[in-house]
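Can anyone check this?
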Amino acid sequence: SVRMKKGFKILSLAGLVCFSSLGFAAEVALPHMTAAQLKANDGKNGHKAYVALNGKVYDVSKVNEWKDGKHYKGMVAGTDLSSNIHLSPHGPGIVNDLNLKPIAVYP
């Protein structure tokens, strides 16, 4: 959180939305993630599990189906799944179903 003039406080929620004490909300630009940064978050050896999908990066570390960075039909964390999402039984809408919020823009 950041404190501004006269007690005006802004809170950041996953880098997506800012709220003030007045109830105002606005979108905040997401950081960019490189291919190397994405690959480093493969869910192995205690690393977070990130996946890219349609230009956004999601943290799937707490999703049971991504345990140890592995998922359905050889899909693995640390990669861009955009070209293979059609192989999944759920499709790209799963990020909404799981209420996952993007943490970065990719590439």
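Reply from J.R.: I decoded it. The first strand starts at residue 2 and ends at 3.
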